[in-house]
Amino acid sequence: MVTDWQPTTVTERALLAAAAADDRDNFLTELVGGPLLLPVSPAAAAGREPAGWPTGRYDEVTHVVAYTSPAAIAAGLPGQSVSYRVTGFADVAADWPDEDWMLAIDPGLPIGVRLTADEIRTLAAPALAAEQPLREAILREDPDGLMSVLFRAELVLPLRPDGPPTRDLADPEFPWWILPDEQGRPSLPVFTSEARLRQALGDRDLVVVSSLQLTDHWPDVSWQLLLNPDTPLAAALPGEALPALRDWVGELRQVVTEAAEQERRRRETAAYEKPSTTGVPVPRPAPEAADEEGPAPAVPLLLQLVIPHRYLASYVDGGYDRAAGLVHSWHGPGRDTPIRLYRRLGLLGEGSPFEESDEWVPVLRWPPGEATPEQWGQGPPRMESLVVPDGTELRCLHQDGRDELLASFEAAAGRWSPA
Questions:
Q1: Which of 46, 182, 227, 358 sits in a 20 to 30 Å window from 297, CA-based?
Q2: Closest by CA position to 111, among listed 227, 266, 260, 1
Q3: pLDDT-derived band of residue 368, with 50, 70 and 90 as boundaries?
Q4: What percentage of the chain has pLDDT greater than the value 70?
Q5: What CATH number does the domain located at 141-241 have?
């Protein structure tokens, strides 16, 4: 055990504190979020040969060796000049070479840990799931897919170290950190997470922005956007592409604004006798025998609300958290299809956004909570307006009976997490 080592990064200080408190959960959380340095040969560091996995044998098991900082390498391998490549925990998990190997991080240091292949996969699963659309877009070299990822993501901007203190992108003094690329073109590094920023640049001052904020205040179309530079999930977009992304965001903004305006009008209108033209479904007389079957026996009470197809993007991509329509009880697995819902709720007719030929329809579904009125889900459907509860599921009901989970609402983050 190395006894004279001291942490030199935010991640290492957090790891040491968690280890001292015997807090393994927090220790592993910090480990997954930090960078990993894998020793490589000088030739690999210079790009003259592929970078292999640095391995050693311990207890008759092959271990991939990784470190959390250059200082950790110097402490763990004293007196040696070691080249390395910087990667992330999720990248190691995605490319893990052998089920029988283990990962040894900072061996010999007070924060050293060994992990099996199963443990690596389990720890990296959330990060891999979150980054899967980006990883696929980069592998496919799909610019539309990349734009879609940027559209949904929170983005992390490193700040110029010697810049003014403002954190407002609209401020002309905002400290944009501009780096030249290999051809000398001005480039703005943008990261999809703090972990990716630390992986590339270490501990830096930063600001987290939305794609809407970034596209609204992109400083110069001649600048190139470098996404996750110096990481395995790196890509580049010309500055000219940002107006297209801005227009895309603007279209969504218009959809959300229109939905909010329609909801305002609905609140101001007390009568629902006439068919609504605002796109919010209203009760109409249902055909005879529309309710062929009630809720399945012993099915738990879940509330459901049908939403017009054209509003789906405002939820999935825009984090929209309002809903208006007929709140009713879910009838159970396989019992709700578009046509059955339309007939049961009386949603068909002139001016309705729904049609009998619809192959699918989106719905919101959630369990009643303490603040839910007792009468919701009891008796006939009720026209209500509500803020979407935390944990609400956005589902797609297909005409063939499939009940597909699209996303779940995270109220604290104000976003819908894809299934």
A1: 358
A2: 1
A3: very high
A4: 86
A5: 3.40.1350
Contact 35, 88 (CB under 8 A): yes
* Strand 102-105 versus strand 303-306 pairing type: unpaired
Q: Is 10-129's fold the same as 141-241's?
A: yes
Digit-coded pLDDT (tens) for 203-256: 899 999 887 788 888 888 889 999 999 898 999 888 877 776 667 656 655 655
From 242, 235, 236, 190, select the one nearest 215 (Cα to Cα). 242
Question: Domain coordinates of the chain in residue numbers?
Answer: 10-129, 141-241, 269-418
Long-range contacts, stretch 172-177, CB < 8 angstroms, 24+ apart: 174/217, 174/219, 176/219
Three-state SS string across the chain, please? CCCCCCCCCHHHHHHHHHHHCCCHHHHHHHHHHCEEEEEECHHHHCCCCCCCCCEEEECCEEEEEEECCHHHHHHHCCCCCCEEEEEEHHHHHHCCCCCCCEEEECCCCCCCEEEEHHHHHHHHHHHHHHHHHHHHHHHHCCHHHHHHHHHHCEEEEEECCCCCCCCCCCCCCCCECCEECCCCCEEEEEECCHHHHHHHHCCCCEEEEEHHHHHHCCCCCCCEEEECCCCCCCEEECHHHHHHHHHHHHHHHHHHHHHHHHHHHHHHCCCCCCCCCCCCCCCCCCCCCCCCCCCCCCCCCCEEEECCHHHHHHHHCCCCCEEEEEEEECCCCCCCCHHHHHHHHCCCCCCCCCCCCCCEEEEEEECCCCCCCCCCCCCCCEEEEEECCCCCEEEEEECCCCEEEEEEEECCCCEEEEC
Contact assessment for residue 58 and residue 104, using Cβ atoms and an 8 Å cutoff = yes
Q: What are phi and psi of 216, to 5 degrees?
A: -65, -30
390 burial via Cβ count (<10 Å: 0-12, 13-18, 19+): middle
Query: What pLDDT score was predicted for residue 248?
Result: 60
Q: Do residues 225 and 217 make contact, with C-beta atoms less than 8 angstroms apart? A: no
Residue 268: band (very low, low, confident or very high) from pLDDT cuts 50, 70, 90: low
- Read off the tokens for 52: 């292999």
Strands 224-227 and 186-190: parallel
Closest CA to 235 of 310, 298, 153, 315: 153
